[in-house]
Design goal:
The protein is an alpha+beta fold and 128 residues long. It is built from one helix and nine strands, in the order H-E-E-E-E-E-E-E-E-E. It has one helix at residues 5-22; strands at 31-32, 42-46, 57-60, 69-73, 78-85, 88-93, 107-108, 114-119, 123-127. The termini are far apart.
Length: 128
């Protein structure tokens, strides 16, 4: 079967969009909340994971174990913390800096990194 160059060139942008957007598909969106002049996020670090256990913190598509896990974080990895729901943090990660300045209206978190949900038991707030 011959594949034409034209069909390959047409399909490349579609494939890269699907691959790049995969990790960003969440069942429950991570939101920045507008709260009377307060910063919208804090900075934290994964900690307390046992080296003899799973050794990772599951990143999920929503706040709870009923949501699918799609990534893993290890001890000492840095995360940006946004909202909290029943002990779960909406996070962004894989980026050095984010703007946490106050906003006027609630909105989904925008990041060049990844985002998802992790259990707060394994995250220590460092600043914010």
């Amino acid at each position: 079967m011959k594949t034409s160059l034209k069909s390959i060139l047409i399909s490349l942008p579609l494939m890269s969009t699907a691959i790049a957007g995969y990790a960003q598909v969440l069942d429950v969106e991570v939101m920045e909340r507008a709260e009377d002049g307060l910063d919208t996020c804090a900075f934290g670090q994964v900690f307390g994971l046992k080296s003899d256990g799973d050794g990772f913190l599951a990143v999920r598509r929503g706040p709870g174990t009923a949501y699918e896990s799609f990534d893993q974080l290890k001890n000492d990895e840095k995360v940006w913390l946004f909202e909290e729901k029943d002990g779960w943090y909406g996070i962004a990660y894989g980026v050095e800096e984010l703007n946490c300045s106050p906003i006027e209206k609630d909105r989904p978190v925008e990041t060049d990194g990844k985002k998802g949900w992790v259990h707060g038991k394994w995250v220590k707030v460092l600043a914010g």
